[in-house]
Amino acid sequence: MRAVVFEEFGVLPEVRRVPDPEPSPDGVVIRVEATGLCRSDWHGWLGHDPDITLPHVPGHELSGVVEAVGTGVRDWRSGDAVTVPFVCACGRCRDCAAGNGQVCANQTQPGFTGWGSFAEFVAIDNADVNLVAVPEGMTFATAASLGCRFATAFRAVVHQGAVRGGEWVAVHGCGGVGLSAVMIAAACGARVVAVDISAAALELARQFGATACVDAAEGTAERVMDITDGGAHLSLDALGSATTCAASINGLRRGGRHVQVGLLPKDPPLPMARVIGWELRLLGSHGMAAAAYPPMMDMVADGRLRPDRLITGTIGLDEAPRALAEMAGPGITIIEPG
């Protein structure tokens, strides 16, 4: 098969022919129809992820058609249209039994713990607990856009953040995750304040339902407090920096909820006096298990959520190495390997 491969961190990958994957007994091989280009792939290419071993094929947001099926797979057949969460659970541990596959201690991640989807084919283990059917009428590009950023934002806003209609929600960082969070919170009836330093990102946030936008370069927590008349009920750091994390916490009202979604390069100092005195709640959010997809898929199917609007461009596999290295702009770029 053809795949994007890098043998050194930070060195431009190449498209080359490599052996086709084989399914494990409990896994499948998927013919990749669409895969998203994500900043996490960029971090992996730079060597920021300890799970990656070289040579490596990146890519973790994918959709496609089941090509081959392991002997132990019960629920899937060749020809099924599927997508997968970027955190693939084992299905056997205590967390998986409790429905929390997104924090499975034995998790695998395509494009990180193994070769990913910047390729014509990708192998996925534990298929019966990790595959999600792509419904009729949903494009492969839309399905691929769900796999990391959109599903991650959905869990952060709906499950961990427990958003309610009429609440103020602040979203710090309007990249793929942040813009997804803006759209999801607005669809749930919340009033959203989008925060970023990019005018283009803030314009997209307005289009996706933000009530107000704040240029982070002009002050953040104070502006959010003013706009929301005392602070957001729910705030997300969708970027992952000491500055955005602190701004998210400091922009909450008393009793508010902070959800950390963006990965931080190192643990930051936090305004814990505010957390204690105002009885704030700090939560983490890490992907979303396949079993939790149905409510999100229902909202996509009935048009309340439009992840396809996040897609800003489509490229072929030969263009992927340069796009990975440059990694610029808000929205989602889709790679079509075929």
TrEMBL record:
Coiled coil start-end? none
| Domain Enoyl reductase (ER) per the UniProt entry, residue ranges | 10-335
Check the record and name the Pfam families matching this protein. ADH_N (PF08240), ADH_zinc_N (PF00107)
In which domain of life is the source organism classified?
A: Bacteria
- Kindly indicate whether the keyword Mitochondrion belongs to this entry: no
Q: Which UniProt keywords apply?
A: Metal-binding, Oxidoreductase, Zinc
Q: Which GO terms describe its molecular function?
A: oxidoreductase activity; zinc ion binding
Question: Which SMART domains did the record assign?
Answer: PKS_ER
Q: Cite the InterPro entries for this sequence.
A: ADH-like_C, ADH-like_N, ADH_Zn_CS, ER, GroES-like_sf, NAD(P)-bd_dom_sf, Zn_alcohol_dh
Which CDD domains does this chain map to? Zn_ADH6
Cofactor (UniProt): Zn(2+)
Protein family (similarity comment): Belongs to the zinc-containing alcohol dehydrogenase family.
Q: What is this protein called?
A: Alcohol dehydrogenase zinc-binding domain protein
Q: Which organism is it from?
A: Stackebrandtia nassauensis (strain DSM 44728 / CIP 108903 / NRRL B-16338 / NBRC 102104 / LLR-40K-21)
